[in-house]
């Protein structure tokens, strides 16, 4: 299923570091158009750093290897060119739903800024369309609110909407549901998948929740101590894990057994 | 519930503060007598119908002088707080936003200012600059901006790490735009609260300098200098000291309580 698909992102031999500590060691990974790839691993395994490296965050320095988006080598691009890529081509949703917006500016003003700073015109209909899929009722009222008035789940949905209004081809999600409670997290995830189907977005989802990965992923990559230890189709990896660490990870997932 | 009570407290105190400001602004309407007119016939008169607060050593109406003096004190205080607020916040935001060497230099200067007791620096500077309200204000302002700068700096530091600031940076927004549109509105609330609590302290500072003869030039009415003048004959005419002192006390209490109430309200 995957072999005949077009590659959208290619990471080859990537090593990246924060100021002094090497966090990622020669990671190679291909992402195909239209798939959902989950990167699973424990805290400190380098998942988030990988995401930061892909969007050329300046706190992460790439030591070796390259990241190629379509035909552009992201790791060689100048800051200005990366700027053009981010937002319109590569979107990012982060863990903390409150940090994404200026807490005391109205949502519609911030959406206007989102459009304008990426060279697009404000398009209220598109926002409403996306809000509807995300289950945000009464968009006019929400757009007039300020982020500090919203709950975490709502803020995160609006952050998702803000990423989608620019119609990115590749969406990076960094632990987007870990700050939400389980039921809301599931809801948000389903709505995200709905949007993905509509907009034909490719998603790289970083999570430490294997159960979640199982529900949504086409492929799963397991990360441990800065390396990708295993990467395969979701069903294969869960049924027949090859790596020792993966086996341990799967056996550690708490199960709810029917009595 | 607690919030409601605090809100009521803030409203009452604000009304009182407003009343005070109106009284001093429209001093001419309330006080009949000229604050600077001396009268040989009415030296050290006890409070009566003509002179509600009595008269001082030169026969000047204490009531008029308290009201007009309030104008001097309050205007100078507000002006000084506003200027320190603007300068301190700006410096703090620049330090917090840029970090590095600019931050290092400006914050070390701030540390030097904090190393001396505020009043000692103020007396020294006011002494060098000579008397006059301008000198006294510069003397106090020299140390006052520090508290605003430190507050603004620490808030800018934590705001800078927020995702929305990073997003604005990635989207190619300029530093000035980010500081004005994103950072300033978000730190305005704590810094303004600080400004409110500084009003009382500044008033004490200004009156204190005037009391020591480093503030206003006579015969301009000012609470501190009135207390200082009246001190000499306090046993004969206690009202000449009592009323300006009472006015200072009430004003400072109102503004301090208001500042505290607003701070509590923000934290509640």
Indicate the topology:
The complex is a heterodimer of chains A (259) and B (268).
Chain A (H helix, E strand, L loop, with lengths): L6 E11 L4 E11 L3 E6 L5 H8 L6 E9 L2 E2 L5 H7 L4 E4 L13 H11 L6 H10 L5 H5 L8 H13 L5 E5 L7 H18 L2 E6 L2 H7 L2 E6 L2 E7 H6 L4 H9 L7
Parallel strand pairs in A: 3-8, 3-9, 6-7, 7-8
Antiparallel strand pairs in A: 1-2, 1-4, 4-5, 9-10
Chain B lengths: L1 H24 L1 H4 L31 H37 L1 H16 L2 H12 L3 H28 L2 H8 L4 H37 L11 H8 L8 H29 L1
Helix pairs in contact in B: 1-3, 1-10, 3-4, 3-6, 3-8, 3-10, 4-6, 5-6, 6-8, 8-9, 8-10, 9-10
Give the amount of beta strand of chain A, in percent: 25-35%
Q: Give the biggest beta sheet of chain B.
A: none
Give me the strand/helix succession of chain B: HHHHHHHHHH
State the helicity of chain A in percent bands. Answer: 25-40%
Going by helix content, strand content and strand pairing, the class of chain A is alpha/beta
Contiguous low-pLDDT stretches of chain A (5 residues minimum) are none
Instruction: Name the strands of the widest sheet of chain A in spatial order.
Output: 6-7-8-3-9-10
Distance between the termini of chain B: 10 Å
CATH superfamily of chain B: MetI-like
Number of helices of chain B: 10
Q: Strand pairing plus helix content of chain B: what structural class?
A: mainly alpha
Oligomeric state: heterodimer
Give the total of domains of chain B. 1
Which percent bin holds the helix content of chain B? over 70%
pLDDT averaged residue by residue of chain A = 83
CATH topology of chain B: MetI-like fold
Give the CATH architecture of chain A. Answer: 3-Layer(aba) Sandwich
Question: Count the strands of chain B?
Answer: 0
Structure commentary:
The complex is a heterodimer of chains A (259) and B (268). With 259 residues, chain A is of the alpha/beta class. Chain A has one domain: Rossmann fold (3-Layer(aba) Sandwich), CATH 3.40.50.300. In chain A, 36% of the residues lie in helices and 26% in strands. Chain A has helices at residues 47-54, 79-85, 107-117, 124-133, 139-143, 152-164, 182-199, 210-216, 234-239, 244-252, and strands spanning 7-17, 22-32, 36-41, 61-69, 72-73, 90-93, 170-174, 202-207, 219-224, 227-233. A six-stranded mixed β-sheet of chain A has the order 6-7-8-3-9-10, with helices on both faces. In chain A, strands 2-1-4-5 form a four-stranded antiparallel β-sheet, with helices on one face. In chain A, a hairpin with a 2-residue loop joins strand 4 (61-69) and strand 5 (72-73). In chain A, helix 6 (152-164) packs parallel to helix 7. Chain A is globular, with a radius of gyration of 18 Å. The termini of chain A are far apart. The longest helix of chain B is centred in the N-terminal third of the chain and has 37 residues, at 62-98. The mean pLDDT of chain B is 87. Chain B has a single domain (2-33, 54-267), classed as MetI-like fold (Orthogonal Bundle). Chain B is mainly alpha-helical and 268 residues long. Chain A binds chain B through residues 55, 80, 83, 86-87, 94, 96, 99-105, 110, 113-114, 117-118, and chain B through 162-164, 167-168, 170-173, 182, 185-186.
């Amino acid at each position: 299923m995957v072999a005949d698909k077009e590659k959208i992102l290619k990471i080859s031999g990537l090593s990246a570091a924060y100021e002094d500590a090497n966090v990622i060691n020669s990671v190679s990974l291909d992402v195909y158009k239209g798939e959902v790839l989950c990167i699973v691993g424990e805290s400190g395994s380098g998942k988030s750093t990988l995401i930061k490296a892909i969007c050329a965050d300046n706190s992460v320095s790439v030591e070796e290897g390259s990241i190629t988006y379509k035909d552009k080598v992201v790791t060689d691009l100048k800051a200005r060119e990366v700027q053009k890529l981010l937002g319109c081509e590569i979107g990012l949703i982060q863990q903390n739903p409150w940090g994404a917006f200026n807490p005391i500016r109205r949502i519609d003003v911030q959406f206007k800024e989102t459009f304008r700073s990426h060279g697009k015109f404000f398009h209220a209909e598109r926002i409403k369309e996306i809000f509807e899929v995300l289950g945000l009722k009464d968009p006019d009222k929400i757009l007039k609110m300020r982020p500090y008035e919203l709950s975490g789940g709502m803020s995160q949905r609006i952050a998702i909407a803000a990423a989608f209004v620019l119609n990115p081809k590749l969406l990076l999600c960094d632990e987007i549901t870990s700050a939400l409670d389980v039921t809301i997290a599931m809801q948000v995830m389903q709505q995200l998948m709905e949007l993905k189907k509509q907009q034909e977005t490719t998603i790289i989802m970083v999570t430490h929740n294997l159960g979640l990965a199982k529900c949504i992923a086409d492929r799963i990559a397991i990360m441990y101590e800065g390396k990708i230890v295993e990467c395969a189709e979701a069903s294969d990896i869960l049924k027949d894990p090859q790596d020792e660490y993966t086996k341990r990870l799967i056996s550690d997932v708490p199960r709810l057994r029917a009595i | 519930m607690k919030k409601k009570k605090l809100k009521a407290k803030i409203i009452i105190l604000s009304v009182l503060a407003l009343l005070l400001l109106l009284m001093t602004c429209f001093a001419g309407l309330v006080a009949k007598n000229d604050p600077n007119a001396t009268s040989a016939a009415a030296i050290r008169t006890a409070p009566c119908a003509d002179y509600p607060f009595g008269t001082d050593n030169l026969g000047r109406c204490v009531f008029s002088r308290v009201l007009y003096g309030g104008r001097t004190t309050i205007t100078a205080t507000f002006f000084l707080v506003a200027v320190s607020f603007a300068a301190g916040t700006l410096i703090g935001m620049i330090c917090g936003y840029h970090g590095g060497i600019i931050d290092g230099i400006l914050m070390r200067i701030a540390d030097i200012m904090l190393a001396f007791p505020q009043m000692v620096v103020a007396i020294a500077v006011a002494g060098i600059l000579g008397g006059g309200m301008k000198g006294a204000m510069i003397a106090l302002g020299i140390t006052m901006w520090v508290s605003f700068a430190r507050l603004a700096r620490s808030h800018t530091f934590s705001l800078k790490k927020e995702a929305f600031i990073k997003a604005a940076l990635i989207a190619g927004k300029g530093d000035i735009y980010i500081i004005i549109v994103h950072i300033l509105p978000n730190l305005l609330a704590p810094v303004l609260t600080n400004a409110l609590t500084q009003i009382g302290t500044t008033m004490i500072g200004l009156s204190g300098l005037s009391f020591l003869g480093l503030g206003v030039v006579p015969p301009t009415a000012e609470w501190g200098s009135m207390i200082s003048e009246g001190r000499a004959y306090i046993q004969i005419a206690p009202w000449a000291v009592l009323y300006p002192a009472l006015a200072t006390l009430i004003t400072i209490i109102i503004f301090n309580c208001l500042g505290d109430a607003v701070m509590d309200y923000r934290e509640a």
